[in-house]
Amino acid sequence: MAISERSRHSVTRRNGAGAMRQRLGRQIVLIGMMGAGKTAIGTEMARRLRVPYTDSDAEIETAAAMSISEIFARDGESFFRDRETQVLGRILAGAPGIVSTGGGAWMRGENRDLIRRHGLSVWLKCDLETLWHRVRQRSTRPLLKTADPKGTLAALIAQRYPVYAEAELTFDARPADSVEAAATRLIEEIRAADPQILEPK
Ligand SMILES: Nc1ncnc2c1ncn2[C@@H]1O[C@H](COP(=O)(O)OP(=O)(O)O)[C@@H](O)[C@H]1O
Ligand SMILES: O=C(O)C1=C[C@@H](OP(=O)(O)O)[C@@H](O)[C@H](O)C1
Ligand SMILES: [Mg+2]
Question: How far apart are CA 54 and CA 39, in angstroms?
Answer without folding.
Answer: 9
